[in-house]
Design a protein that fits this description.
The complex is a heterodimer. Chain A is of the alpha+beta class. In chain A, 30% of the residues lie in helices and 30% in strands. Chain A has one domain: hypothetical protein PF0899 fold (2-Layer Sandwich). At the A-B interface, helix 1, strand 1 and strand 6 of A face strand 1, helix 1, helix 6 and helix 7 of B.
Amino acid sequence: MHELSIACSLVEVAAQAAQQHGATRVTRVHLKLGVLSGVDADALRFSYDVAAQGTLLEGSQLEIDVLPAVISCHQCGASCVLPTIQDFRCPACGAPSHHLLQGREIEIAHIEIEVDSVEEQATIS
Amino acid sequence: MKTRLLEIRQGVLSKNDQLAAQLRERFRQMGVLVVNIVSSPGSGKTALLERVLSELRAQGATVAALVGDLETDHDARRLARSGAPVRQINTHGNCHLEADMLIKHLADWNVGAVEFLFVENVGNLVCPSSYDLGEDVRVVLLSVTEGEDKPLKYPVMFHSADIAVITKVDLAQACECDLAQMRENILRVRPGMAIFETSAKTGAGIAELIAHLRQLRAEKVAEIAASGA
């Protein structure tokens, strides 16, 4: 179970970005999570609230977009979504294939922040 | 008060990835082949490594090992019997090694120029898969006592590895392990992966594994020479 340590890194990265943009609070975090990331979405949600305590992210919502594994087949050239990660075979032609185009992501896509109108003015000028 | 959407597009583990990239560059300059060994607890990482370190040393190669463990230094003491320089990393509850742990433990460790650096990860088939350590090759171990279907149960780790080593093959018959099925399951989650069947006890398959690692190091050295670095 390393989801708590992943959640702490997530909060750190998001809080830093939020701070740089003069945020007073983060309300929402959108995360892209690949099925081959080795991270369990439920365990991450569970750890998230704990990791967010006492930071700009406290009370924010974590939205996880689970991304399927996508392979590029060297045999037929197709890019396909793998129906299961227990069988790395091209769904189009059946050739064994492990060249991944997607599936290992643990990436913050975007965050929703609250900014003081006055502070924002100051940041811009 | 205003609400804004802020695009980030940053990996959550980007800090670890940056440190791993620094390590990889450093290992490249040193010309050392770095091998990250992962498996469940009890698959025989330490036994295999003890044998590999001894045999590589007997062949005149220079080797060193870093070994991760939650609390004890038992594994480091076992590995030190091979005569190789060994350092213990205690993670104190952390279930995997991270790049910054390697940086810390390499900082004041004067191992000199070694050809092979082995990193024995914490016994865990889940968490270590997410953390790049700057290694050249990730070797996943699977013992015959664990069941043929383990690669299907832990596809993320098996998929992330470059070499699979089946261990304790001397016990295969007693465990009624179907080695052909085990190989097939490994290849289902990682097509084309090199697989070695070994026994640290009898020495079976160790020479083949070592020859493969020597080949990988020769390729790395040739590549460094070709790039003029």
